[in-house]
Write a structure and sequence with these properties.
Shape: elongated
Largest sheet: none
Distance between the termini: 31 Å
Organism: Tessaracoccus defluvii
Keywords: TPR repeat
Protein name: Tetratricopeptide repeat protein
CATH superfamily: Tetratricopeptide repeat domain
Number of strands: 0
CATH topology: Serine Threonine Protein Phosphatase 5, Tetratricopeptide repeat
CATH class: Mainly Alpha
Helix content: over 70%
Number of domains: 1
Pfam families: TPR_19
Order of helices and strands: HHHHHH
């Protein structure tokens, strides 16, 4: 299967909320292209939606290592930590995000859609 076709099928699975299939396809793509941040973001999101919080955290941290200002991945990481009962660590990240963006709303806990 071509990379573009696999990507399109992975996005389709994600959009249809078939996160198991999305994880499988995005994992395959990431193996072929380890530096593809778009694929890694989708993979983090799919893991999060499957409540696979450790893999979601790992992929979010990998994205943030390359792009520390990625607001969505920071929020995903915060929510992953909160759902793992790691509130103090999440609160620290919330303060950093609020300082970076100037938006004090980030200090409040919200669910991630």
């Amino acid at each position: 299967m071509t990379t573009l076709l696999t990507y399109n099928l992975a996005v389709q699975a994600f959009d249809e909320r078939d996160y198991r299939t999305a994880v499988e396809r995005f994992s395959e793509l990431l193996e072929a292209e380890p530096g593809n941040h778009n694929v890694r973001e989708y993979l983090a999101r799919a893991h999060y939606h499957r409540a696979a919080l450790k893999p979601a955290e790992e992929h979010a941290r990998a994205v943030l290592a390359e792009d520390p200002t990625n607001e969505y991945m920071t929020l995903l990481l915060i929510r992953s930590l909160e759902r793992q009962s790691r509130g103090a660590e999440a609160a620290g990240l919330r303060r950093v995000l609020a300082a970076l963006t100037g938006d004090q709303e980030h200090l409040r806990s919200h669910s991630l859609a």
